[in-house]
Amino acid sequence: EDDGTFRRIEAAHADPARAEVMRKILRYPPSTTTHAGVSWAMRTRRSAIITEATDEMLQKIARNADHLALIREIAPVSMMTVPMIAKGRVLGTLTVGSTTPDRRYTEDDRPLVEDLAARAAMAIENARLYAQAQQANHAKSEFLSTMSHEFRTPLTAVIGYTDLLLAGVSGPLEEQQRQHLLRVRRSAWHLLDIIEEILTFSRIEAGREPIRVATVALVELAHQALDVVEPLASQKGLALEVDLPRDEVWIQTDPGKFRQILVNLLTNAVKYTETGTVRLGVSANDRTITCRVSDTGVGIEPVHLDHIFEPFWQVDQSTTRAIGGTGLGLGIVVRLTELLGG
Question: What share of the chain is helix, strand, coil (3-state, %, to 5)?
């Protein structure tokens, strides 16, 4: 442990009857005063081989009379303790024992046991690093969620008061004032979209994004997604092409999440296409639904393809990039797709 104390994690025995005794031994932490065994192996980072385990040695290892009785019941005749080291850090030890009189450990056995200990140590270290990464990722998601909520409240007020001014509640507006307010509203809605994107991602990462399955019309969902993206495409003079099933297809899915997948893919295509066409194709058979979004935009170099679904990742990472965004759109797509079993 971090405070220097020892804790037994697991024990096993080839004999099921003695396996229960081994589990009882787990209650007793290893001795820190003996000159061999666990404490010595950890302190020196060297393997401790006890070719012949005498009763006198077992008495030194035991913490009390009950512990000694359990060890005597196991009746080890030879033992070896090797340190478990990963990236220069001693994580613990691995101890093996023989209860067969004609099988005693020697130097010839050391390489195999040390290799087992090294593999176990690396597995433990990888698990520890993964847990730390998960904890950091959770903290990041919580921070993003909290900050996004804090930003959304005043931003909603900005949009509300802008709409009131545009409606003439405070009096008539000159054309230049109206244009300025329209720009304010567009920017505010853009910020709100970014905040909603971050909140969605945070909920998915935290496992708080519920799935509400319903029977829905696939072609209708595709048209709803196209309706959202059509104004963005029109602003850039892009053509929206569709290839949808002639007859309606009924599917079981979460309509909101399915629609968001299509909207994110189409929006991403529009964002990175300056001239030409964005195309949505949907096909279905008895088992599979396939949605394809293609465009005549800049494309992605093959070297970047492994990264495009990573959160916050963009090909152009500079602060002066021509195309903005959070880099979450495709990350949300792949996570929602997985949530829906796709």
Answer: 50, 15, 35
